[in-house]
Amino acid sequence: MPVNSRFALAEMIEQVRDAEPFALIVDKTFAEMGDALAQSVPSIRALMVVGETGASSRNVQSVNYEDALQSVEPVPDALRGEDDIACLFYTAGRPAAPRSDAQPRQSVGQRDGNDRASWSRRQPGASALRTAFHLGAGGRVYATAVAGGKHVVMSRFTPEQALSTIASERVTVATFVPTMLAMLLQLPDIHTYDLSSLRLITYGASPMPETVLQECLRRLPHVRFAQSYGMTELSPVATMLGAEHHTLNAPPGRLRSAGRPVYSAEVRIVDPNDRELPRGEIGEIIVRGPS
C-alpha cells in the first residue's frame, strides 16, 4: 500500500495502523517520518530506507533498501489468483475516516491494459513526470514500468519546477490536474522552456475548463492530450477522452466531455430507481466491469 507523504502524520498513522503492514519502505528524505510511523504502528517490524540506514529501535529493524536487495535471493512466484488482493489504496471519497479500497490483481491488470491502450504511441524508454498522488497516478506508474520507461518524480509541484524538469529530463509524458495546467499557462516565460521532448499530457481528477484546454492546445501544438475520468473504487478509470478528440476545431462541447467508456467498463446514467435515462438527461453514473 502507498502512503501519501502529503498527509499529516496523524492521518498516516491511522491508515497504516488499519492496514497492519510488517514492513515500511521510505525514501531517505522521509526517513524521520518513516521512523515516527514505525514507532507508532505495532505491526511494523522492519523500516527500509532507500539511500541510507536509519537507527534501529524498539522492535523495528532499520535496513538499507539497496543493501537488502543485494543480500537476498529472488523468491518463487506466489502464483496468486486474479481475485487475490494486489494492493490497498486509501480513499477520502467516503464519510468519516478514509478507508482502504482493496485492489485485486485482476483490477490492476485491467488498469494497466487501459493505460497501455490509451497511450498506444508511447515507446519503450519513455520518460514520465510524476506530480500527483492518487490511484490515477498509480496506474500510470505501473504502465510506465511495463513499457520500460523512466519515472521522473517531483516531491512537490511548482509550475517553474515542472517546466524545468520537463526540459532537463527530456520528459515525454506528463500527468497534471487542470489547476496545474492553468498555473503553467500563467507563467509569462513559459515560451523560454524547452518542451520539445513532450509528446503526451494526460489530465483528470477535476473538471477541465474548456478555455484552459483550448489555450493548452494553442500553446503546445506538438503535444497530444488525453483525459481520464473515474475514482479509486473503479481502479480507477471509467471513461477516457482520447487524443483524437483534443482539437481546436472539435465540435461544441466535445472538450468538456469525459469521453467514452474504456474497453473494460460498462457505464450507464440512471435515475434514483436505477432506470437508464435517455441521452442528455442528468442522473447518477454507475459503472461495472472487472476493474
Describe the structure.
- The longest helix has 14 residues, at 105-118.
- 29% of the residues lie in helices and 23% in strands.
- The radius of gyration is 21 Å and the shape is globular.
- It has 8 helices and 14 strands.
- Residues 109-114 and 116-122 have low confidence and may be disordered.
- The chain has helices at residues 9-19, 31-40, 65-71, 105-118, 135-146, 159-169, 178-185, 210-219; strands at 23-27, 46-50, 61-64, 85-91, 99-104, 127-130, 150-153, 173-176, 200-203, 224-230, 237-241, 260-261, 266-270, 284-288.
- The strands form 4 sheets. The protein has a 7-stranded mixed β-sheet with strand order 7-6-8-9-10-11-12, with helices on both faces. Strands 1-2-3 form a 3-stranded parallel β-sheet.
- With 291 residues, it is of the alpha/beta class.
- The protein folds into 2 domains: 9-74, no CATH class; 86-92 and 99-264, ANL, N-terminal domain (Rossmann fold, 3-Layer(aba) Sandwich), CATH 3.40.50.12780.
Task: List the defining traits of the structure above.
seven-stranded mixed beta sheet, Rossmann fold, about 290 residues, 2 domains, 8 helices, alpha/beta, three-stranded parallel beta sheet, globular
Major β-sheet annotation: 7 strands, mixed
Radius of gyration: 21 Å
Mean pLDDT: 82
- The CATH topology of the largest domain is Rossmann fold
Annotated CATH architecture of the largest domain: 3-Layer(aba) Sandwich
CATH top-level class of the largest domain: Alpha Beta
Approximately what portion of the residues adopt beta-strand conformation? 15-25%
